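for the writeup, i need someone to sanity check this before i put it in the appendix. the sequnce is what the collaborator sent (i think, or maybe the updated version? ugh). structure was predicted straight from it, no edits. if anything looks off just tell me and ill rerun, i have time this weekend
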Amino acid sequence: MTVGLQTESARAVHLPDMVTVLTEIGIAHRMHDGVVRSLEVVRLATHMREKGISDQFCHGLIVSCQAPPGSPLFGAEPMARMARAAVAGGAASVRVRGVADVEAVKRAVGVPVIGLTKRGSTGVYITPYLSDAVALEAAGADVIAVDATLRPRPDSAPIDELLRRLKQVVHAPILADVDSVEAGMRAVDAGADLVATTLAGYTAGGSPEGPDFAVLEALVARVSVPVIAEGRYRTAAQVRRALSLGAHAVVVGGAITDPIAITRRFVKATREFA
C-alpha cells in the first residue's frame, strides 16, 4: 500500500517501503486513512534523501559550469552543453548558476545539480535571499548553495536565521559556502547539510594562488557533515590532496570550464618568444 508522507509545507512523498520499516521500529505512527504525519518520519525521510544525493558524488569531482555575462559561453544552452561534456568526462556532479541554467542542465545530465544564484559580484552575492533558493529548487536543483559567511547580508538577517528558514521551506539539501572554520560550524549548527570551502581566501581582500587546505582540514575535523573542497583547485595533485585530507568531494571550475583563462595561461608562456 502506498502511504502519503505529508507536512503543511511539503508536497506528498510516497514512501511505502520506508514507512513500513519505520512504523515497525516505532518511529512512525499510522493515522487514519493510512496517512503518516509523524514529524520524526519527515525528518528522517529528509535525512535519507540528503544522504543519498551526497553519496552520489562522494570522493568524486564536481565541475562548476558557470560563465559570466559577456563570455561567449554565457547562457543556459552553452552551460548545458558544458555540463554534458563534464559528465561525459566523469564528473559526479555539476555546480550551476541561475534558474534558467539549472533548468537546462537538469534536462541535459543525470547527475546531481548544485544550484545557486549570483546577485552582483561583491559582498554576499551567492543565493542571498530565501526566494532565490525556492526558485532554484523549483527549477530542479538537487542541492542549493548559499553564502554562509558571517558577513552582513543584503537583508540584514543573520545567516543562522536564513539557514533555519531555508530548512523549513526548501526540501533540497543546503550547501553552505563558507570562508572560515567558525562560519562552517555555525552553518552546521543552523542546519546546513554540507559545507564547502568555496569562499576561503576571498573575503579578506587578498588574492591567494592555491586552495586553502588549512580551512579544509580543520572543517573536516570539526563538523559532522560532508565537507566539499572548493576554491582555486587547478591540478590533479591538489584534488588528490584534498581527498586525502578528508574532503567529501572536490569542485573544479575555471581550470576545466573557462577556455578564456586557460588560453591566457598558455599564451603567457609564448610571450617571451614574441
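The chain has eleven helices and ten strands. The CA atoms of residues 80 and 108 lie 6 Å apart.
thx in advance!!
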